[in-house]
Amino acid sequence: MNTLEMVLDLAFLRFSKNRREVKEKELEKVLKRLEDKNEVAEKNDEEAKEREYLEELKRSGECVKKAGWITKLLPTYGIIDDRYRFEINLTEEFTNLAEGCRVSYLAYKQKDGIIKVVKIEMVLQEAWDCNGARSNEKSLDQAIEEYFGTHLRKVNGTVKSIAATQTSSIVTIETEVDREVSVDISTIEIQFNPAVGDKIVLTCKVQTDDTFLDFSGAVLDFVAINPVRTMIDVGTVTRVNPSGDGGRINRNIAFRKAALEAEYVPNQGDIVAFDAIENEKDDCLWRCLKVVLTKRSELPHDEPTQPHETVINERGIVVEEIPPIFLPDIGQKVNLDIVIKNTSNRTHKLFRTIIPVARKMSQLELLSPHIDDSFNLEPGAQQTFKLLVHGRFCGLSAEQIVWKFGGGWHVKRRIEIQVGNDDTIVTIEPPRNPKSRYNSNGYDRQFARKDADVIRGGALMKSTGIISKVIGQFLVPDNMKKLVLGANTKMDAEDSVVRNYPGLRHQLEPKNYSHNFHNLLFLEEIQLWSDFRIYDRTEVFFKRPNRDYLSLDIDNVAETRPSLILGDIIRVISPWNDRRVYEGHVHKIQQNRVLVKFEKNFQNSYNGELYNVQFQYTRGNFRKLHHAVGKILDQMEQSVIFPTRVDPKPPQVDVEIVNGEMLDQKSGKVLKWFNGMLNEAQKRAIKNVLRGEARPMPYIIFGPPGTGKTYTVLEAILQIATNVPHSRILVCASSNSAANLITERLISCRYFFQGDFIRIVGLSAIDRNSIPEHLHPYCALCDISIDGTTSNEIKESETGLKMQCNSKYLAEKKVIIGTCQALGSFMTLNLRNKNHFTHAIIDEAGQCSEPESVIPLTLLHPDMGQIILAGDPRQLGPQILSSIAKNHGLGVSLLDRLLERFPYEKNYDRHAYGFDERLVTKLIYNYRSIPSVLKLYSDLFYDEKLVPTISEEDSEEIAFLEKYKSILPDTLNPKHGVFFFSVIGENRQDIDSPSWYNPVEAKNIFIFCTKLYKLGIKHSDIGIITPYKAQVQRIRQFMHQIDEDKIPKVGSVEEFQGQERNIIILSTVRSSKSFLAQDFKHSMGFVQNNKRLNVAISRAKSLLIIFGNANLLATDPNWCKVIRYAADQSAFFGDLPLQLGSQTY
Fold it and tell me: Helicase MOV-10 helical domain: from which residue to which, for each copy (predicted)?
């Protein structure tokens, strides 16, 4: 290469390099411009977002700093700009504050729209001019308006004090930052009633202020209070305070009476489930919020009978041994001599001899000396007292004889009297239950074969249309069946279930609500399946009463429980060919047989062959319950089922009670009372229902016995229908009888036309005659289908019963009445307006399980629907078959559970009537019992608040009492109506029956009733209550000896709930302590079962007679009070229990 070429190449390389450098620099400049442009865009975006955020804060106005003038300053509060109120404690750091000052302040817009001033930050200007006009001086401060965001912050603290007023409860909390704050718990979310010493977490809404490191500025509002730590566990009661107001669990967990489940009286050794929170007040570190009994402590075995008092020296007075007296029968007599000696060296003066029992009821009569004779008993002298013993009462009883001496001392002796022998008292053999031919070994496996050919037929009726929503099957899990049915004992079954389904141990809360109730319903269904096995038969044959049906004989099937109902399934299988199962249905139930239908070929060809038979219940009701508990929390606000606070809504009808009249404050009109006899408590309940300020939270009408709850419910229905024009009302009841009563009352008030309301019934209720025929024109069969899928023609039976009703026909009704289960059929429909029903009223809500109660709730408008629960948590609750399900929550009604939660719970310090009247009204005026009977159950179970309306002077009930005073002991109060006869019988059990009876009590009741009949008392005026079926049978057998057509009603407590009689006689049966724990576990008997006791003693209008073993019953604190109540009025017959102390003579 020559020189020139080399020069040119070098020049080209340099040129290329320079050009590349130039391009790189240009590229850097372009990239720099792009970066600058992006930064500007990002900055503009951030500024735009900031402006948008500030605009949003400004629009919300939730937290703002502003300037304003103090226009009023009083000792307790001040006002800014004539608009915004602030508490005077916000000004404590300012000494120069006065009206006319200009200040900067921080304000917060609350949920209800009210502006709350939370902080006075500084004084900007000290005063107005001398004429009181605001200064026109301009300043930068006048333009203050700065908006802030908010966030939640949690602060730990300890409750230091609680101040309750009629309208609020102020809790003072010492926080972890050494600052005390006061919180009105009626305005925040809280799920427990706080107490001094509780360790809590306070959730606050605070100002978001970036001038602070943690961005937290002023506290704007208080949102919630929760415990710092909770403990849910099972423990043993290790101490019960002598006063009965509390005690200890596991020695270091304190509980108070308010934490105990309703009617539970704790004993040392009880096993309890508890929910506790941390508390530093006492020496314990925990305080119980709730204590629920899971297992009663082992009660002591029978104490030996008191020995006969032989020779006892008292100040030298010796009473010779008094032998026990035996009389073969009532009416017989025997003489008794008692010798007393003065072995001292001084003279004792005997003032008088006393037999404490009223003369006409006592079995002792002193012949000589006279009871009022007074004489000196010299040293070494003796005196013989001659008595005549009359046999008045069957069984073993005891009386006392008392010698009263000068100086105020006395000597007493106990005389035991046995009239008749237990073996001779029962002269009528009870009917024997037929032995079941059911054999579980291999029997059920026949019907459970997976490869069996099932031939179905004989359905009760064809569906008249289709439904728009299909409810799931919710089949019982096989694992749970095995755990329950495969266990050796019920206790083993419960342990296995809880171990495999641990959620059942936990307190009910939103996250486990549906899951827990699904499992509880599965357990209940397993128990029903087990109970249904009493109907199963092996190698039986059918009869053919007519060409339509086959019949199967089952003794007393109409009275057997659980009940067979129309539509239940019958399955039959040949003992020798178990590959084919014929499945039919029950069509009729008669006293001792059922009529069934199968598939046509089997039905027609059956010719007396033997078959094994199994009955199965229809599952429709269980499916409705499962569907409801799975849907409720999606349908309604969580506060409906788990309330924490009241968020008041504008009244649906703005009414107030003025001088007994209900005034519509909007129109100024006086609204009509449909029942002019309502008392002031009932009127308050109606006012609160119409206002409905807490809706959709349930409103509770708490109706103790005889207080007119049903009349209040009826008035509520009429007032809602009249004054809430858009209303569509579901009226639900726990039973057909309760629904019938409401229907009859609506008919009798004559406000509605016949087509305005309808009573929904099931076919089985018609078949069992549960619906009186005169109600049929107002009833429709529960056969619901979509409008357009059936004929619009509504068919009627001869009695007026509506059939084949579609949704269009039913939707037109203003009021629809039925049991919760019957109204559950509406869950399968899509009504044109999904919020068609506006109000749900559940009568006897305390007798409905929670899944039953939530069925109608799922049909309501989710935001504005109103729920009204009427019932009494102190009476019997839902009847649950499964003890496992009952022990873990299924036996607690929604009404009961709500009344034990804040803000529903009782608090007389805070509320004049005991409850927040936006949520609960307690009826207190009793129309049933005479004052002396009412006082007993009012004092025991209703805080002594029930008020009698029956006069002691001229009422029918008092006149009725006068009729039979001649056969009762004279009492201190002549108008006293509660008597206790203490007799000691023997509780017995037949070999083939698990139930108990006491022949002595049965005979005494028979004798007492014969005396009543002789005085002209009708059998319809008498009710006899006893907790055991066997005792019911014994008493009925005795009463048959009088007149088969004049037998008073004899039944269990459950059968008498909701009823009343002029005379109620209780037979308590138990005479042995060894069975009390078993009674309590199975909710039998009266001891330690206060709901049963309450129902039993509150049925009487004029007279309550109790037969029982007083020494045994006195082991129960409430029974102790019953016995004392009778004894204080000289209405107790027998030997007073030691627990009640000595009697005054």
Answer: 472-533
